[in-house]
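Late entry, magnesium ion complex.
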Amino acid sequence: MIELYNVTKDFGTTIAVNRLSLKVTRGEIYGFIGPNGAGKTTTIRLMGGIIEPTSGSIEIGGIDMRKNPAAAKRIIGFVPDRPFLYEKLTGREFLKFIADLYGVEHKVFSVRAGRLLSQFGLDEWRDEIIEAYSHGMKQRLIIAAALLHEPKVLVIDEPMVGLDPAAVKMVKDIFRTLAAQNVTIFVSTHTLSIAEDLCDRIGVIHRGNLLAEGTMSELNQAAHTGRAGLEEVFLTLVREA
Ligand SMILES: Nc1ncnc2c1ncn2[C@@H]1O[C@H](COP(=O)(O)OP(=O)(O)O)[C@@H](O)[C@H]1O
Ligand SMILES: [Mg+2]
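Prediction complete; structure with ligand written out below:
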């Protein structure tokens, strides 16, 4: 559902992403980990069609992002690292605003918004203005908004930053539910325990280079770390890079 072929993104002399190739299959949760400045956000913005690669190509659900960006983007639910919310709107009004942007019909919207608000534990808050929401509630609302058009692919940058443990659990459970419904999820994080716990496969990016990817046991093989946890694998890979 997501395929990157040899994708490079330069910003002047900075090579943010260097000849990156990866594939994520339907219903898979792929975690993208790396230190600050590694190239995670740039990769996510490339996948979302927010920026264009310097070279290489990106396909979402088999659609080339450069040739047919509108069709590719319709398949994607996109959650940026610093999302923007109109805080004077209520939760439901915000969802309606986003649904209108996506051209979701009103009747369909009503059903989906009701389901999402309840799934995300926001039912009782639907008619409160967003300003009054906690950080975790805002994050859940943002993810709910990204799901209104029923995307097949969810691309999400650092969703767990600033969330308390209960909110992290709720978001993880939502991702698992979506994956079970065959939604493909690409999630960046610098919280290794979340990646280890949540993701089917993990890619480790460092200074724009994909150092290794795979399941935990494949990563352990690549790093020669036996049966170590992700932290040791990660530190070994980065040290040797
Ligand atoms: N718009 C930009 N202009 C110039 N440099 C950028 C821009 N966006 C990202 N970079 C640089 O690209 C590198 C990767 O950044 P980023 O993708 O944000 O990393 P991460 O999300 O892993 O922390 C960094 O060196 C960053 O400074
Ligand atoms: Mg980032």
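The beta strands are 2-11, 14-24, 29-33, 55-60, 63-64, 76-79, 153-157, 184-189, 201-206, 209-214. Will revisit in the morning.
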